[in-house]
Amino acid sequence: MRKADVLKLPSMPMAGPSYPAGPYRFINREFLVITYETDPALIRAGLPEPLEPIDQPIVKYEWIKMPDSSGFGSYTESGLVIPARFNGGEVNFVSQMYLDDDPPIAAGREIWGFPKKYAHPKLEIVKDTLTGTLEYASQLVAMVPWATSTRRWPETVTSRVTRWRRRRSI
């Protein structure tokens, strides 16, 4: 194999690349994103320099069902996003991501630099309830049920669902 052939590979190993060559399309995605307030000290501890916390101490936890992703097939991911400030502008810092498929984990880390790990996130409708769960190391570590018939949180629930939508393409 010549150097030019090696440089054309999308990833390693040569005999069976970890993920396919692009371009990549992610269509028919489904999202559940919750936004909640937390301890400002925890936000500060979770942001690397030079990022700064925004004024309101909020974070977002999301589930994304990816049923049709070119070259990756169907998978689900879940993760924590911290709104922050960088050079005076607002940005979203992706703190943690958990996926249930190896190729998008490798591509996410190597191509886009996302902090992806293997786990078992799920986004599904059970009867009239949209439910996002995350299992890691055989432990349920996150769960958000949302009754889709009302799409309202009970007053006793402090977290708030900000959106659930299906996207056709990027």
Features:
disordered C terminus; single chain; 170 residues; 8-stranded mixed sheet; 3-stranded antiparallel sheet; mainly beta; 3 helices; 50% strand; Acetoacetate decarboxylase-like
The strand count comes to 11
> What would the CATH topology be?
Acetoacetate decarboxylase-like
- What would CATH call the architecture? Beta Barrel
Main sheet characteristics: 8 strands, mixed
Shape category: globular
Low-pLDDT runs: 153-170
Secondary-structure element pattern, one letter each: HEEHEEEEHEEEEE
Judged by helices, strands and strand pairing, the structural class is mainly beta
Top-tier CATH class: Mainly Beta
- Oligomer category: single chain
Total number of helices: 3
The N- and C-terminal alpha carbons lie at a distance of 36 Å
Number of domain units: 1
Give the amount of beta strand, in percent. Answer: over 45%
Helix content: 10-25%
Rg, Å, rounded:
18 Å
Q: State the fourth-level CATH superfamily.
A: Acetoacetate decarboxylase-like
